[in-house]
Write a structure and sequence with these properties.
The protein contains 23 helices and 30 strands. By secondary structure, the protein is α+β, with helices and mostly antiparallel strands. The strands form ten sheets. A nine-stranded mixed β-sheet has the order 15-14-16-13-12-17-18-20-19, with helices on both faces. A three-stranded antiparallel β-sheet has the order 5-7-6. A hairpin with a 2-residue loop joins strand 1 and strand 2. Helix 17 packs antiparallel against helix 18 (551-563). The longest helix has 25 residues, at 703-727. It is globular, with a radius of gyration of 40 Å.
Amino acid sequence: MAAEEAAEASLARLSPERRQPGREDDDENLEGGGETAALNGVVVSGKVKRNNLDVKVTESELETEEKGTEEESTRESDSNILDVSSGYPREKHISIQRHLADLEKLADLKEDEKKPCPLCPEEKFKACYSHKLHRHLQNLHWKVSVEFEGYRMCICHLPCRPVKPNLIGDQTFSKMGAHYHCIICSATITRRTDMIGHINRHVNKGETESRFITVPAPKSSHEVLKESATDVQVLPNYSTPQKTDSYFNPKMKLNRQLIFCALAVLAEERKPIECLDAFGATGIMGLQWAKHLRSSVKVTINDCNENSVTMIHENCHLNKMKVKLNTKEDDNDEAMRDGEENTDTIEVTKMDANVIMHLRSFDFIHLDPFGTSVNYLDSAFRNVRNLGIVSLTSTDISSLYAKAQHVALRHYGCNIVRTEYYKELAARIVIAAVTRAAARCNKGIEVLLAVALEHFVLVVVRVLRGPSPADDSAKKIRYLIHCQWCEERIFQKEGNMVEENPYQQLPCDCHGSMPGKTAVVLGPLWSGALFNTGFLRRMLFEAVQYGLDEAQPLLKTLVCEAECTTLKHFSTHSPYDENKQEECGVYIKTPNTSAESYLVHRKRKSDEVIRNAGKRQKSENSAEHPAFYYNIHRHSIKGMNMPKLNKFLNYLSEAGYRVSRTHFDPMGVRTNAPLAQFKTILMKYSTPTYAGGQAEGPVHLTEDVQAGEQVQAAADCKAEDDEFLEDDKSGVAVAMFTKDYPTHCAAD
């Protein structure tokens, strides 16, 4: 019996891994094996005959051995890789640390003098002393790490995942290459560039929360920005339009302020008005409307993206605004505290912009899609109310600024080339597309504002219902003849008759002196005015009232440009006093702007309002600013020093021409002087650059040229005076004209 017990104990101590290969032949000679019986959870194998001894091996002893191997593999997997499918946070991988000292501490856990690398297997890097280990960790692991939110994802050489089996079928963990462990999703990436791209994709999706225990409590990935006393939440990638659902561009702040001023002017004309922000994104523009104008406007913010609509809801609650969805107030309003009481309500819709503009009528519509807005013009003018305003922001500047001419031909149907006045050309292209879309709906337009800056082209128009205004607006779409040699330009004459020599319309004689074809036909373009002076003055007043500092300098420049004058006299009184509105420097009496004077929407306005609008438009056309501008550097004379820009403007004004600066070009001059006279005056007041030449002062021209200039300037001034007096015979108008546009005919 003692011998049997000793043999049984020795068999139990032997593990399957420790048995020698030679013993496998003995195991095949087992007798009575193959039958197992379950007795109270213990499985008893058959009798084993070894050295004439019968041994019973219990299943419990085998389970203890299997448990040990499982625990070792579990420990290894827990320390190396994170289980993404698990619902609870796990410990981060040892290759993800904040400081280099943290990696060295992992090696200091062992008491041996020689310390192994915690991120390399023993066959790759043998144990060494601390100074050598420090260089190894710094050069091989830390310098090639990927940083994210204060953590470093170091390169790892441990066998963290199974690789493809070799020919034998075994797992070759030792041949596992270097890799990184993602701090967000625990994926293993082999290349550093791929790891950086992997992290960037997480950030673009808004996934910046780690599932590790050691990372602090997950904070909101939304960043709160403030603009014009309005708070908005944005995603980390808010400035990338194609990779985010809530695009927010801080560079468009000036654009938002101009649109707000236009809406504020309309809100003073009639109350309340229904306004639509067709492309809400974060909802910043609609929130500014509702927060500052309050009960004067009924704001609707629309977006077709579900994530953007959710962001708009959150931003409304952030600014203590109530949300109305499908004519029912949102249930989240009940969660507002007593201290957040606010009667302002914003309607948020989720549908295509064309659909909502077809279904409902609005007084004010703003279109700001990503790129061109021509796809939404037909639906915008379909239901917009009479004397309402449509504003659109076009950001496809590559096509509008003649960098992609084929795209401009495809979207706007215009032939364009790169010119010195390309920004104004872009504004006239957009207005022409707006005019055609409005005319298809039997509506005309009155251009209130056209701004073309570095990042966008903004156009604000007033809608005039009826076929007659539509015909009048459509007649202002004409082609432009542009000389490629001297860059002189002029709109083609009205009429359908074909001219034998269209070059005769150009004031220059480049076609006669230069060989070949010297001019191109551009367009069709808008040939009317780009600004409404009275509306701009009221916008300036609203900008001062609401403290919009960035919009005020631009509006002052636009007022001077619309009047084509260098004078900067701006009244500080309200233009709404005594039911009068200031248009083009003239006070025009208008009907009472209270709600009683306006009928219920979807009905035509009274005849008195329409007649006043027609009178206002006629008075504005009489003082229409010149089309296009000249760049003073483009037409400078080689070897001559040009005069200062402000002095040159005075010289042109003294010659009897209307002149002003333009916002399109900081060195541009808007004037009604022909290009030949422009160059003559520029040459006259330029000085030679060399020291030994003529003394400083104007270049003296011949008497014949001077006499011709004086006669031409006097004739132009007299024609302008007669034309203005015939159109507007009021004494106030005469006084304002003589004040703003002093003539120098007598002096000449």
